[in-house]
Amino acid sequence: MLQNLKVKNYALISDIEIQFNNGLNIITGETGAGKSILVGALGMVLGKRADSSALRDKEQKCIIEASFNITKYGLQSFFNAYDLDHESVTIIRREITSAGKSRSFINDTPTTLKVLSDLGSRLVEIHSQRDNLQLFNTDFQYHSIDKLAGCSEKTEEFQKGLSRLTNHKVKLKELKTEEANLAKEADYNRYLYKELEEANLDDINEKELFSEQEMLENAEELINTFNQSSQLLEGSEHTITYLLSDLKQLLTKSRTSLTTELAARVDSVLIELKDIAGEIENSAQEVEVNPERLEEVAEKVSSIHMLKSKHRVESVSDLLTIQDDLSRNLALTLDLSDQISSLELDIANLETKLRRQAAEISKIRKSKSVEISSQLSEIIAGLGMEHSRLKYQLENVEDLNAYGMNSISIELSSDKGNSYADIRKSASGGELARINLSLKNLLANHLDMPSSIYDEIDTGVSGEVARKVGTMMKNMSNDQQVITITHLPQIASLGNHHLFVYKSENKNTVETQVKVLHGDYRISEIAKMISGDNLTEHALEQSKELLSG
Q1: Which residues, including other chains, have CB under 8 Å from residue 81's CB and lie 6 or more apart?
Q2: Other C-beta atoms within 10 Å of 270: how many?
Q3: Residues 349 and 360: beta-carbon distance below 8 Å
Q4: Which of 87, 102, 315, 380 is most solvent-facing, going by the fewest CB within 10 Å?
């Protein structure tokens, strides 16, 4: 439960600290005094979005701190999950700078706004006048009946499955689009791949092929050249090597250092020429006139040139890369078909499962709705709607929706159940407030929320009905802490703890202040709520009567 709230530099609040108690906590004060500002500050520390415009002094940061006794609420696993210290009295703090930057702390450990909001949603539920409109909200209607019927977990499981189904359908659509795009190119890609495959590019050394073509095209000329070259190098006494051998012998005869060096150089040339002669002889043996092979090689070279030109690349290696890409694309087309078939089967199975779950949820809702509707009707009858009846109207639908296979509405009868109409059309503002409070009363036992705050939700009720509304809140406070902002003396008089919010003014500033009311001060405040500022004896007597009541 909320024990303490400290607010500094927020809206009309300079620096205040408020203590809250068990049971029913009442907050009263004149319109504009700052009652709802307290709720806004509490919402801020529980994770609502920060707004630097709410800072009282733009040069100072705003600090809001709330302490909660969480001993009985089993939150240890939450603290463990976020590596936070679990303390019996947990302190949450929020700091907002004038630049709009925000820092959040749980037990002095910095944390994110998401974690703060998650923890806040487990500690306090804030209800305002606007909540009456949530009765029209389909999500709230499903949420409330599922909580009361005890099938919330089944609905959550269904929704997880529905989310998977939605994702599967999105993925299937993407795969089919991709398959269609690939199919448009598949035939042409298959033709290109076959053309490259038949070229046997893996077995081709482009450099060697071009060299072979050159040799075959010039075979006769090469053979003649090699023969003449061999005749010049070796074979008679007039050949180059023979003459160089004579030159070497001539130089060797003169045993000077110069002639010895020249002879060595001639010998080096002789060795090189003999090596050239051997290579010419080997080449001559390798070269042959082969028109058939020339035609075969020429065809290969022509094919490679054509493929390189067609694919606008420079080498066989580039063509092999294209061939691999085409192979992958063709394989992907086949793989996509398999993926689509598998995914379609998963979707069908999942949809069958979801329809079975939805039917089970619908059965639970319908079987429990009669009891829930009866309980709600009984509660609103005690709030001055004696002739009214409420019911959840559930109809089966064919298509799956976010909550199963039902359509839902909350309907009101004002003639003891003879005719019903949707509350959007049949309920007044005051009736909506009482219906909403009645539903909150039923839900309180299912939500296990430490604290609930009601911000002027008693609008549209008065007199004896107001007293009954207050009694309901009083009864709710037996199981949880209830904090109520009210203008009604009938409700204010039922509180265990009464806080009065007022404005303190001086020459330069107006500030919101809070004080605890006891004894005569509380009697006077409730009397003013009855008669206004013109405090009368009759109002004082009524106040005492309400407080003793």
Answers
A1: none
A2: 16
A3: no
A4: 315
DSSP 369-401: HHHHHHHHHHHHHTTT-TT-EEEEEEEEEEEEE
In a domain, 389, yes or no: no
SS3 content of the chain, % helix, strand, coil (to 5): 60, 20, 20
* Host domain of residue 121: 2-130+430-515
Q: What is the DSSP string of 63-86?
A: EEEEEEE-TTS--HHHHHHTT---
Q: Which residues fall within 8 angstroms of residue 313, CB to CB, at 6 or more apart?
A: 319, 322
Q: Note down pLDDT in tens along the chain; length 549 residues.
A: 999 999 999 888 889 999 999 999 999 988 888 888 898 899 889 888 877 777 888 888 999 999 999 988 889 999 999 999 999 999 999 998 888 788 999 999 999 999 999 998 889 888 876 667 778 889 889 999 999 999 999 999 999 999 999 999 999 999 998 888 777 776 777 778 788 877 777 777 777 777 767 666 666 666 676 676 766 677 666 677 777 777 777 788 877 788 878 888 888 887 887 777 767 666 666 666 666 776 777 777 777 888 888 888 888 788 888 888 877 776 677 778 888 999 999 999 999 999 999 999 999 999 999 999 999 999 988 888 889 999 999 999 999 999 999 999 999 999 988 899 999 888 887 788 888 888 888 887 776 778 888 887 776 677 888 888 888 899 888 888 999 999 999 999 999 999 999 988 877 788 899 999 999 999 999 999 998 878 889 999 999 999 987
Show the tokens assigned to 438. Answer: 């009645």
Separation of alpha carbons 157 and 354, rounded Å = 10
Same domain, 60 and 107: yes
Q: Is residue 479 part of a domain?
A: yes
Say how far apart CA 376 and CA 391 lie, in whole Å: 8
- CA dihedral sign, ordered 350, 353, 357, 359: positive
Cα separation, 121 vs 48, in Å, equals: 11
Contact between residue 491 and residue 26 where contact means Cβ atoms under 8 Å apart: yes
Q: Work out the widest C-alpha separation in the chain, in whole angstroms.
A: 156
Residue pair 126/41 in contact (Cβ under 8 Å)? The answer is: no
The answer to whether the beta carbons of residues 393 and 409 sit under 8 Å apart is yes
Note the pTM of the prediction, 2 decimals.
Answer: 0.65
| Structure-block tokens of residue 22 | 């068990």
What 3-state DSSP class applies to 124? strand
Return the CATH number at 124. Answer: 3.40.50.300
Q: What stretches of 364-493 adopt beta strand conformation (E)?
A: 389-401, 404-413, 421-422, 451-455, 481-485
What number of residues does the chain have?
549
144 HSE (CA, 13 A, CB side) = 27
Please count the structural domains in the chain.
3
Both 491 and 536 in one domain: the answer is: no
The three-state (H, E, C) secondary structure of 172-211, written as one string: HHHHHHHHHHHHHHHHHHHHHHHHHHHCCHHHCCHHHHHH
Say yes or no: 44 and 118 in one domain. Answer: yes
